[in-house]
Amino acid sequence: MLAGIGDVASTSFITLYCHALETLSDNPILSDPKSVEIMTELNKTLSRSDNTLDRTLVAGTLDRMLVVHIAIRAKKYDDYARDFLEKYPEGVIVNIGCGLDSRFLRVDNGKVIFFDLDLPEIIGIRKGFFEETDRYHLIASSVLDFEWMTVIRQYSGPFLFMAEGVFMYLEGRDVRSLVLKLQEMFPGSGLVCEVVNSFWLRPPLKRMLDSKLQRQVHLGKDATFRSGISDGREMEQWHSGIQFLDEWSYFDSDEKKLGWLRLLRYIGLIRKTQWTVHYRLN
Ligand SMILES: C[S@@+](CC[C@H](N)C(=O)[O-])C[C@H]1O[C@@H](n2cnc3c(N)ncnc32)[C@H](O)[C@@H]1O
């Protein structure tokens, strides 16, 4: 992996390559030409590495089902963003833990104010590929350093916060204080976030999950799932202003490339192994 990129931050390379590989596939679920451009450039550096994840990325041999899942998820989050912009064309979207994703380019309606936020080492890489404008901004900060919210607060909103594949890498107490802070600072905003079912985080299931992720996806040891919830409505108990709106699982998708896995939508605990919940913060 590139120097200075931690295990959690390096997960953004996996999602980037999933977008690119899917874009180049037959009947792509997601069209993301920017991811192909970034992949082509990164390949030049990663091809000199002997790290297993890097070699897998460069060879384009990521697990095919992982690629399909990540593409379906990105497309769904694009839909959440577009739905928001249909109601509020001049709204503000904050993509928390954006990685190397190009959602802004995919959903830009010419009016949205869009913030991509990630750790400084990832934003440093993004700067080589994305130019900031008066409507597109980069924030190099941990999402847990709440100072970034003062920048966003200069806008009048409405606001949509998106966290795709991020909250599970944070400690539970940190996710809770982040959501409560968003709710306090941005009343009336929307939050779309992916969560992991805390059922799967109990030992020995957690150990099995970690070793599966390390074996199949070649995640580094520190890129481990640290927190989850048991039900989409669990966050409502954190504060009366947090309102559950809807939820979505990969297996709800009718995408043909999912194949027989679509049947898993009928098994509650599997459907909600890792899923997305949409809240209003009042
Ligand atoms: C699995 S990647 C997802 C990237 C992107 N959302 C996507 O779907 O392509 C997780 C991202 O969360 C970011 N992340 C993890 N902890 C973070 C934190 N405390 N503050 C900001 N970003 C964080 C990582 O750097 C990484 O880019």
Which cofactor or ligand species appear? Answer: S-adenosylmethionine
Query: What do we call the CATH topology of the largest domain?
Result: Rossmann fold
The fraction of residues in strands falls at: 15-25%
Number of helix segments?
10
* Order of SSEs: HHHHEHEHEHEHEHEHE
Structural category is alpha/beta
Kindly report the average pLDDT value.
Answer: 95
Write out the CATH superfamily name of the largest domain: Vaccinia Virus protein VP39
Helix percentage range: 25-40%
Low-confidence stretches: none
- CATH architecture of the largest domain, by name, is 3-Layer(aba) Sandwich
Descriptive key words:
282 residues; alpha/beta; Rossmann fold; 10 helices; 7 strands; binds S-adenosylmethionine
Summarize the structure.
The chain is of the alpha/beta class and 282 residues long. It has ten helices and seven strands. It is globular, with a radius of gyration of 18 Å.
Architecture overview:
The protein folds into two domains: 7-65, no CATH class; 77-281, Vaccinia Virus protein VP39 (Rossmann fold). Helix content is 39%, strand content 16%. The protein is built from ten helices and seven strands. Strands 3-2-1-4-5-7-6 form a seven-stranded mixed beta sheet. Helix 1 (7-23) crosses helix 2 (33-46). The longest helix has 24 residues, at 64-87. The mean pLDDT is 95. The structure holds S-adenosylmethionine (SAM). S-adenosylmethionine is lined by residues 8-9, 11-12, 15, 97-99, 101, 118-119, 122, 142-144, 164-166, 169. S-adenosylmethionine (SAM) is lined by residues 8-9, 11-12, 15, 97-99, 101, 118-119, 122, 142-144, 164-166, 169.
